[in-house]
Specification:
Length: about 325
Amino acid sequence: MLVEEDFERVTAPFRRELLAHCYRMLGSVHDAEELVQETYLRAWRGFGGLEQHSSLRQWLYRIATNVCLTELERSGRRPLPSGLGHPPLDVAPSALAPLPHVRWVEPSPDKVFGAGTEDPATVAASRNSMRLALVAALQLLPPKQCAVLLFRDVLKWQTPEVADLLGISHAAVNSALQRARATVKKAAPAEDEVVDVPARRAVLDKYVAAVENADSSALAGIMTENAVWEMPPLPMWIAGRDAMESFIDRFCPSAAGDNRLVRTSANGQPAFAAYLRGSDGVHRAHQLNVVSVTNEGIDHIVSYQSPGLFELFDLPEVFGRPSGPSGT
């Protein structure tokens, strides 16, 4: 039998992967951090009764998953705007008003789930499982289907292990997995990775130049034909590069120099902190853009109109100012 004095030593190595698991299920770093804390509190209370030969990792995952399932039943799932319905054929003024009471899928800084010293293949697989489109697609699943998919396809657990953890039959696991895979494949197809890193960098350089120069046609030129642009907390979203260019010209008038971008990363993807110039000439935190790049160009941008995210990403509130207490 394990003793409580061993708790921190033996459970600490699992905290980061449990945080990633909870984030995938909940779509929020803040919620995931709270529920990992709850997981460890419950685990500490029951630690003395855990047999030495028991799998500590599976036991912790059991607790974390049950905590997440309870939270999902209480608070519901988080969408992106594209999960609410079809894009508008024409943008109505009501679509440009935020939905303040909707709990949206949130981006995650890569630092939260750093890969440490794992081999490159493992790092790549981990990043792919954190893609924002995938995390959003997981929110479309019933909670237990989501858990089954994560255990089988991300964590690579066997069907008997998943059945035991969730308290369901082997047949129920296999059925849930089949349905979950079909939903996720439709909502978040496998990402077409750019093999040529310099080409990827060139696309992103063009993106920065187009935004900072307020060149909507240049921006449209590096988008795929069916590119998607989402802007939570706005409920509307844009599908297609022509529609995107038209929307920018109608609703996002700006001059060269009005926007400044700072590169960062989120969910294993390129991301950009956008700073908008005010009437006083100061560029202040405006939005965080998470970008998906394929061989054909940029095919998805999620622009979070939430300056509060800048703190999560260790970004300053004012462009050119150092982050941290001395810069705020």
